Amino acid sequence: QTFENEMAQEMLQLDVDRLVVYELNADHLKVVIKTLWDQVSMLQKDNKKFKDLFSSVDLSEIAMKVGKLEEKVFDEVDNKLLKQQSEIDTLQMNFSLWNKQLQINNNRLDQMEEKFKDFNM
Fold this sequence. Notes:
The chain is elongated and about 135 Å long. The termini are far apart. It is 96% helix and 0% strand.
């Protein structure tokens, strides 16, 4: 019977230890929940400040300025592209001329070779 009492006492002590752990966990959870609640409250205050700040901003004016900036950027890009295309066209024309000149020179060389062959025979 003493053995059974000791076993029951140990089981009781285990239950008490478990309860202590549960209490510690509960206290920890209370701290976590309070911290989260405080953060939510701060976010709500920040959100209100943010709304107050932006209620005074005229979004249509900002959109108009952004639109003008976009137009300016697109115009600059278009101008640069046109200039580059013009440079490319010039290079292609020069290349074409050099190619024709090369063909003419090759033809002259061929003719000279023929004359040289005729001269040697």
